[in-house]
Request: fold
Amino acid sequence: MAASGKPDPIAAARTNWERAGWGDVSQGMVAVTSVMRAHQILLGRVETALRPYDLSFSRFELLRLLAFSRSGALPITKASDRLQVHVTSVTHAIRRLEADGLVQRVPHPTDGRTTLVQITDLGRSTVEDATVTLNEQVFADIGMGAGEARALVSSIDTLRRNAGDF
Reply:
């Protein structure tokens, strides 16, 4: 039983895995399932914080990336690379942000084949406000101490590096 008094479903799954004869891989199943559940928990908190701004986390990330860029604009392919998502996902996010007046597409000043996505003044003020909210409601306390957070990041960095992510 956990501190909440509720049984841990992932611990129960481990027991079932081991009973089924898969004990040699049960730790991997627990690790994957735990990361997936942690993702759900954190994403839920992020979505709740961003709801007043009508932003998903992916749209927030794109706005934040643009706000951090020197000119407030990036080629769509560069935004895709930096966010580590397919260009189709970025294009979908751009469409939603464009409809809300938060970004606009503009021609590249020197490369006629390239389109830039540019943050608008409304997009900049929205992402600044949303960042304050995320910092206060999510990032300031993710549900574990600083040492645990560093250890988690280190473990995930190993997984990402071994997957060729960087």
Q: What stands out?
A: Residues 46 and 139 are 9 Å apart (CA to CA). Strands lie at 73-75, 103-107, 115-119.
